[in-house]
Each structure stands twice: as C-alpha cells, then as structure tokens.
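REQUEST
  id: r-88c1
  op: predict_structure
  target: MFS transporter
  payload:
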Amino acid sequence: MKRFTKEENSWVFYDWANSAYSIIISTAVFPLFYKAAATKAGISAANSTAYLGYTVAIATFILAILGPVLGTIADYQGFKKRFFTFFFTIGVSFTALLAFIPSDQWLLLLIAYTIAAVGASGANVFYDAFIVDVTTEKRMNQVSARGFGFGYIGSTIPFIISIAIIILAQKEILPISVTLASKIAFLITAIWWASFSIPMFRNVFQRYYIEREPNPVVNSFRRLGKTIKEIRKYRSLFLFLLAYFFYIDGVGTVITMSTAYGTDLGISSQSLLIILFVTQVVAAPFAILYGKLAEKFSGKTMLFVGIIVYMIVCTYAYFLKTTLDFWILAMLVASSQGGIQALSRSYFAKLVPKQNANEFFGFYNIFGNFASIMGPLLVGVTAQITGKSNSGVFSLILLFIIGAIILIKVPNEKNDIAASKKIG
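RESPONSE
  id: r-88c1
  status: 200
  body:
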C-alpha cells in the first residue's frame, strides 16, 4: 500500500483525538466516578448500573432520530464540516463541564454525560462519512483500521496521565482528593480532544456533495423520504445494516458497560483502570491487523471472526469471578473491538454513493444507535430482574447470533460493491 496522504492522515488523527473521550469518559474514569457518586447517594450497584444503561439508551435515541435528517442536509456543498463542528463543540464543551459538577449530584452528572455523548457520537457520524472524501474504495479497509489503531494508541497517553493522577491521589502522594483527580481527567480529555482535532479541521474537506438548491431543508426531507421508501430495493445495503444493527449493539454495550460490570464484580477501580489501559495498547495492533487481513480474506470474513470472538466474550463473562478472569475477558475484547468497528465502517462506505454519504451514514448511525438502545436496556433490565450483572452481559450473545445469521446472507463485497453503486 502506498504512503498515506495528508488528507488520510488528518482524518485518521481525529480518531487519535476523540478516542480519549471513548476511554476516559465512556469506558473508564467517568463510569467509576459516577458509580462512586451513586453509591454515596444510597443507590444499589445493580440500580446504578441500570441507570447508566438507561442514560446511554437516551443519548443514542436522541442521535438516532437526528442522524438521518442532519445527514441528508449535510450532503449539500459545505454543510458536512459545519455539522461536524457543531457536534464536536457540544461534545468537547460538556466533557469539560463534567469537571465542574459537584460529585454528589449524580443525576446532573448523567445529564451532562448524555449531552456530551450526543456531541461525541454526532461528530462521529460526519467524521465517518468523510472517509469517502479522503481516500479511495481500495484503501478504505486499511485507512479505517488505521484510524481505530491510532485511536487506541492515542487514547493511552491522556489515559496514562489521568490514571497516574488518580492513583497518586489515592495513595495520597498528590495532595488532592480522588474526586478532584477524576475531574482533572475530564479536563485533560476535553483539551486533548480539541487540540488534536486541528488537522481534521485544516486538511479534510467535503469533495463529494450535492449542489445547493432553494429550500434545502424541505428538499432534504423529500430526499430522505425517497431513500426510506427505496432502501429495501438495495438488498446488500439493507441486509448489511440489519446485521450491523444486531452485532454492533453487542459490541457497543460491552464497551460502555465494562467498567460498571467490573465494579459490580468487586474488582478495584485501580485494577480496572490498569486493565483498560492494557486493553487499549493491545487493541491498537489488532485493529490494524484486521485491516490487513481484510485485504487478504475479505472484510466480511473478518467481521465473522470478530463476531465469534464476542460470542466467546459473552459466554466467558457469565462465569467471570476473579480479576484474572476479567483480564482474560479484556484481552479477548481487545483482539476484536477495533477491527469489527473499522471494517463495518469501511464495508458500508464502499456500498454507499459518495455524493450521498452523509445521508447514508445517517442511516448507518440510526441502525447503530437504535441498536445501542436495546443492548444497555437488555443489560439493565436483566441485571435488575436477576440481581446479577453477569446475566445481563451473557444475554448479549443473542444479538451476535442474530447478527451473524443475517450477515451470512449479505453478498461478498467483491461481488456486490458494483451492484450496490446503483443505489440512488
């Protein structure tokens, strides 16, 4: 493969920037911070985990509703970067705001977290759609995988700084409270995210678009309505989105609920932070490996590999008892989480017409985010009914099974990409 271009590297670098949010806010520090605040307020472990799941569901529902509409409007010339900037600003701002909310206000923390999540996920809709503007179809698997690989590598730096501050505060080496140390981590995340997004703003531009026309909002709704009516005609695209709906639900739920699950099992916050750090380090080369193997065995084959690994994760999680068990589980997740997400993004990008990329990535988002409502709700409800978090995690295996069955029916990408370009 030829050297990566400035546009490709700038696009990849945004994964480096925003992955700090993914690990520190979505996965590690904030969930632990919230769990501690909820416990102090007298909320049981199972209920606080359920409330976090419900919050994730609310955030994803909001974005699932907005995604296709905004994506359709953003297909007009010059709109993609504007929408990206808008959601990016919301995400960074409310991530920073988490540092200024009193730690005993667990409900306010969840509200701010919800808005930050909408901003982060909203920016990602348009960021993902920019892949058609920065590279060719032939290079998409490796460019997408490189993005996730760099994301994992980049996220480790602010994560190391954050956990170092938290651990030093726990050991009273630093003269600050653990609460303040966690809030500093939130600020580090916002600063890191904003600073390293600069190449994306400078070097990535919308190359494929629809020419502007009168009444763009009205016409966007008309185009969206037409797409909704006709999407079933495009078998490969529809089947892929349906399969993606199920398996990515399980992937996202495992990622967002992992620290809450570990806390319920009695694993110390210090151990969880270290495990999550190592997970990021291990995930980076595996994400890039998935991209290279996809060139040899096809993206669809490697998606099946990732799904099988996650089915093993769900089964193993049910019997998980010790910190060592959690280590093993984390390494299994690390081997596939970046790869399955990267190849899903690049496979879908190959299927959609480039000038309508935002509109179709809006549907990609709505399928992914509506799915992300179901997973956390499934875990939350099951945890409350059984009183055991591991039962909720195990129930996610059903989503991977359904996703795999549907993916079997999706035509192989080499045979189907050309046919899919007839969409629109």
